[in-house]
Amino acid sequence: MTPKLTTPDASKHLREKHGIIITPRTLANHAWAGCGPKFHKCAGRRYYGPDHLDEWALEQLGEPRNSTSDRPKGGG
Question: Which residues, 6+ apart, have CB-to-CB distance to 9 below 8 Å?
């Protein structure tokens, strides 16, 4: 079983593995708003799976672009 990460550890994981700088407080706000990575909750604390963090990070980063005027696939 993959160990779960606390919110500060999840923040560190995103920074070290993906270069995404997001504070634990912002992760907490994202959890409240429903726009952050999936998590488990136990005893009032959030625990993130590394796979869920990686999946969310890749969604946020999107496809690589050659120009700021490139549109993402799908026309968005």
Answer: 48
Element containing residue 41 per DSSP (H, E): strand 40-42
Q: Tell me, yes or no, whether 11 lies in a domain.
A: yes
Question: Over its length of 76 residues, how does the chain's per-residue pLDDT go in tens digits?
Answer: 788 999 999 999 999 999 999 999 999 999 999 999 999 999 999 999 999 999 999 999 988 888 888 776 665 5
> What is the value of pTM for the model shown?
0.83
- List the domain range (segments joined by +) for residue 45: 7-60
In the chain, the number of structural domains is: 1
Residues counted in the chain:
76
